């Protein structure tokens, strides 16, 4: 490659290394749709028994076309999602991968995450244009893959952690819930977090709220199906309009960073919290510095922050846009500004951190 004094010397080996890495990323980008394909057509569930299949066998068992199963299986094998045997021509889904790809009750279940990715990327052209002006794009303006995928990804984690470890990490809260407490679940989406708490604590009553009308409609249906609609009221309202206190417990699951004015929302919580009440804030796991988050989980969350969460905040009054990777220190600043004085980190998973917040 020709260079001049004004251009940097190019390391050809480093250049090609990056090119091939980028090609791998292209395959990974396309794989989001392939994972959805495997999920919706039942390929992963069919292969979850661990027995090798040929393309023809998978097509027959899923009532799909062999020309599609053949190419899908090869793409999955190339991405090391499944294993291929040249000797037998069979394709196998490893048991560990089946837990993540076919078991909807596993906290490691991933198709919902890929569904959010697919929906977020589909809406990216709208975000790109808004990046020129600083305008936002509200949660309600996204396609259904974003809304449904969000619930499908977070619900197994909430089912695995909320009752067993997160609530017990809060001082005295489980005793209150067992005896009968009033709980507000703000930003409840499809109601997965509200329902899992209502199922565990039959003497407590719950109010789930979200500004997105379609999510609230879904949440009501889910509560009916779960048999807990007598203990849950779902309301369409934003966080700044929280009312009906005093509440013994207020919860926010993965939504505070999406708000345009999280300080105002926090003040509203403070106004509606019982004098000895607790606010549980569940947020994406993050360090306090950029360099702390330069890892696979941080990369995914920074991407969601760019295309989903920051535009959501910028679409609302306040437009604070603290980002998906705000970190505990920044969150503490927000909560302290609202008047809370006791804030401590009580639990974490590979994807979330849990803060206990009290007046």
From TrEMBL:
Domain Methyltransferase: 178-285
Superkingdom: Bacteria
Cleaved signal peptide residues: none
Record domain S-adenosylmethionine-dependent methyltransferase Rv2258c-like winged HTH: where: 33-101
Alphabetized SUPFAM superfamilies for the sequence: S-adenosyl-L-methionine-dependent methyltransferases, Winged helix' DNA-binding domain
GO MF, one example: methyltransferase activity
Methyltransferase found in the keyword field: yes
Keywords, in A-Z order: Methyltransferase, Transferase
One GO process term, biological-process aspect: methylation
UniProt protein name: Class I SAM-dependent methyltransferase
